[in-house]
Amino acid sequence: MPFSTEKSKRIYERTLGVLIEASSSSSRGPANFGKYPIFMERARGARIYDVDGNEYIDWMMAFGALPLGHAHPEIVEAITEAATTGAHFATATPVELEVAEMLQRIVPNAERVRFANTGTEAMMAAIRLARGVTGRPKLLKFEGHYHGWHDDLLVSSNVLPPSALGLRSDPIKIPDSSGLNRTALEDTIVVTWNDLPALQRAIENHPGQIAAIITEGIMANMGVIPPAEGYLRGLQELAKSNGILFILDETVTGFRIAPGGCQEFYKLSPDLVTFGKALGCGLPVAALVGRADVMDALKWGGVLHYGTHNGSRIGMHAARANLRVLTRDNNASFRHTWRIAERLCVGYRELFKKKGRAVVVQNVGPMFQLMFTDQPTIRDYRDFCQFVDRAAFQKFVLSLFPFGVYASPSAALHSIVTLAHTDQDVDLTLEASGLALDSNN
Ligand SMILES: Cc1ncc(COP(=O)(O)O)c(C=O)c1O
Description:
binds pyridoxal-5'-phosphate; Aspartate Aminotransferase, domain 1; 2 domains; Aspartate Aminotransferase, domain 2; alpha/beta
């Protein structure tokens, strides 16, 4: 049967006049998916099925929220049990303590733990805490880093023409959205990433004013860009020596790069760390963890952090089962995802070479992205804006769908290897990619 997404198209037409861009987040709609998105109906393991009955190997995995793949039996069992005995109480619960204790064991700096629902919320709490504890107003973030859709850090994280960015030594602050609080970005300093002298200058320009430096451990919202050797430790030292808190955003990298995230992998000791995505394995669970003396300022009368759904019982059941599976057999799941990713990335490099296509495959362990570029490597946001052909990437990904492979068509995002992906999925994906390249690229 020829590949058809007719039902998706009809559902999309029904959404017009009801939903904005067909879903509840602009990144899921036509801006990324062309004429209309594919409507998915069910999933299991590494496979996802659309409303027309097409089957795909899923490398998007809910933007990284499914480290075990879809419908893992232990997650299904855990959330079923919670659903039948009370999904949420908004009281203190023993399971919340259990998950917090697990985080203390797994994450090096987790002296204290506070749960939230999304990466955005955890980061909002982290920056309020940093401002409260230090008594300083300013936040320092990096070009091309995304930390959620709240006002304070929503700047210079969209892909833009290089001519709009200003000088590396003094980036122009470009808000990512209309409707921000008029003064929201006044206290936000934007610096180029992977550049310690630039960071040092920015700190010197605002003595005693900066509450926190906020960074992703690996850039995950401009494809995949690793930190330069020693960069994050240099950043940590600069923060420490200037009385600035170091907030590591592990929303993407947490429970993915290593059990303790980038913190463990790059041997860091951040003051605060935020988690989201992978923690709940499909349920909205996020966490803020960190130094006891900083985190304790969240006590009543200090820095306010509320949330009806924080630490939901069903989410905590999912997180507990998830962390058990991820760390089982001496963290075997991490060895699996790194090995599968390595095979896939090597295979992709060979394939693009054979087909004469200029594509750089960048990955750190199970996070990878195909950068359509004639450059040997993409090192930062400015490289990405200038040298990555996003339209070519989008065309390639959309042409994979008829061959049964699904990924995000946004070049600025990335793909994810999970515990559910197999060697066979790698072989099928490479074969499909070859066919897709031959078909219309
Ligand atoms: C690095 C990073 N931080 C924070 C967030 C926000 O997380 P959420 O979408 O759960 O609010 C994201 C989302 O993609 C992210 O990539």
